[in-house]
Structure formats: structure tokens, C-alpha cells
Amino acid sequence: MSPFWSPARHADRRGFLHARARIARAVRQWFWTEGFIEAEPDALTLSPGAEVHVDAFESGGRYLHTSPEFAMKKLLAAGERNVFYFGKCWRRGETGPLHAEEFTMLEWYRAGAPYDRVMDDCVALARLAARETGASSFQWKARACDPFAAPERLTVREAFARSGADVPEDHDAFSRAIVAIEPQLGAPALTLLCEYPIGEAALAQRCAHDASVAERFEMYACGVELANGFGELNDPAEQRARLIEAMDEKQKRYGQRWPIDEDFLAALAQMPPASGVALGFDRLVMLATGARHINDVRWTPE
User: Fold this and answer.
1) What is the pLDDT along the chain (302 residues), one digit of tens a residue?
2) Which of 84, 91, 118, 119 could be disulfide-bonded to 108 (CB atoms 3.0-4.6 Å)?
3) Which domains does the chain carry?
């Protein structure tokens, strides 16, 4: 394949890239209108997160962040109320039509808001992207999603029941089973899949009506995961236990573990109740523009 700077290749991608710029401008304006402030946390961190299956780039005992989540929650503890991040994240080994090792994340937090509120934010941003490109629907692999239709809210338990199965208790079995369910989500309208098992939501608080599930949701369009959000856990003791459990599982599976961020746990004791979301901006642009590969919407893909 020719390099990204090849005039012919750039000409093929130029429409997607200019649409990306328009969507980015509209996204920032939306957040400012909603009363948010944009934060720019450092990309290098002592601990890159809590994800079992994610690998991080390491440099001199520090890591490029896989998400700015820990830093953003520290800012909530410092006194910020509505704060968003719009920038780069890094995850080693993630490549393919929907994945890149360096990608753009849109992540935001609302202090004092239930996670239903940030679900509404996700829907609003999907519709904003569609309006900026003039798209009446999102398309991916012969599946279509109308972002302007009323979204479907579905619990994980309900999603498994549709396929005639119970929610697996084992982490491995859950990971295998959810992959078979995801392609059915987000068509013909957006799907908000919520109430994940506690074992699949290391950073989310327990649901008040059922302590076995967490205030975690993901938004899907055309079978593609666009966003992952939580009612944020702010109990330092429970969070420590969850992080240790996640890192034990990471050690068991991949022979590595990330350090526990003690500063993050200390900040949780001061952090107000909040909800937050991470949304894959590149994927949103892909669906809104009809691009077929994430590199079509990245300015300088290698």
C-alpha cells in the first residue's frame, strides 16, 4: 500500500478526513455548550488502567495511557465537575478494521449525575456526528442503524436471554459468549447494553437494585461498540480489591500485571459521585462517513 502522503491515497481519504475535522469541531462546541471544561492529562502514567485483556506501551517504568480515566477521576477529586478529554490513547497489539494501536478517545465525566445521563450524552453525540455528515443512517457490514430513532436499552441478562442462554459466571465463558451477541446489537437503532456482571466492570459501582451487576453500559451501532460508560465506583477499599483481582487475572493469563495507582485510590476517597464514558472517536467517524477501515479516518496512518 502506498504511504498516507501519496497524493492518490490522500485524495481517496480526503472526504473522510475533512468530515472528521467537522465532527471534531462540533463535538468540542457541544461539550462547551453543556458546561464542560477540556482537560489535557499527561499521556505517560505510572499505571495505565484496570483492563485484563489490554496491553500497554511501556517506557522507563511508565506507560502510555490506554485511557485517561485515572487522571480524570483525580481531577474530579480536585474539584472539577464536568470535564472531558479529546485526544490520543495507546493500546499495544490492537490492529484491524476497527482497531489501531494509537487512536483517538473522547472521554468525559459528570459529577453528581446518574449514568443514565451519560447514556443520553452518547446518543446525542452519535446524532451530532450524523448531522455533520448528513447521514440518515450508520452502515457497517450490511447492517444499518438509524441514530435518530429511539435507542433500545437492554440489560446483559436480557441480551443473553434473547439467544436462549444465561449469563456465564466464568470470565472466559462470558468473553466468548458476548462476542456472539454483539453483532446483533445496534440495529435498526442504537443499543445501550447495561447492567454488566460485577466481574466484568472493575471500575463501576454496583447497581442499587441488584448487587450482582454493575452500572456499566456500552453503546452499539451496527454491531460495533462505540462507547463504554460507568456509574463510577468511588469506594477506595472496594476499588483496591477489584484492581487486585483484575491484575491477578492479568498475571494468570498474560504473565504481567500493572502497578496499583495508590494516588488514584487516595483520590477516590475525595471524588464525588459521578458518571463517565469513553467513546471511540475514530469509530464514530467511520460509521458517520461510511468509511470501511479505521485508517481511512486517521490523518497519518503508518
Assistant:
1) 899 999 999 999 999 999 999 999 999 999 999 999 999 999 999 999 888 989 999 999 999 999 999 999 999 999 999 999 999 999 999 999 999 999 999 999 999 999 999 999 999 999 999 999 999 999 999 999 999 999 999 999 999 999 899 999 888 889 889 999 999 999 999 999 999 999 999 999 999 999 999 999 999 999 999 999 999 999 999 999 999 999 999 999 899 999 999 999 999 999 999 999 999 999 999 999 999 999 999 999 98
2) 84
3) 7-297 (3.30.930.10)
Residue 196: strand, helix, or coil: strand
C-alpha dist (Å) from residue 203 to 14, 127, 188, 246, 271 = 38, 27, 30, 10, 13
Rounded to an integer, what distance in angstroms lies between the CA atom of residue 293 and that of residue 97? 5
Report the 10 Å Cβ neighbour count for 136. Answer: 10
CA neighbor of 27 nearest in space, from 226, 294, 218, 284: 284
Q: Which triple of cell numbers denotes residue 226?
A: 462505540
d(CA 58, CA 47): 10
Beta partners for residue 143, in sequence order: 140
Three-state secondary-structure class, residue 167 = coil
Contact present, 82 and 36 (Cβ < 8 Å)? yes
CA distance 259 to 240: 11
Chain centroid to CA 279:
4
Show the CA angle centred on residue 69, arms to residues 67 and 70, nearest 5°.
Answer: 120
| Strands in 232-273 per DSSP E | none
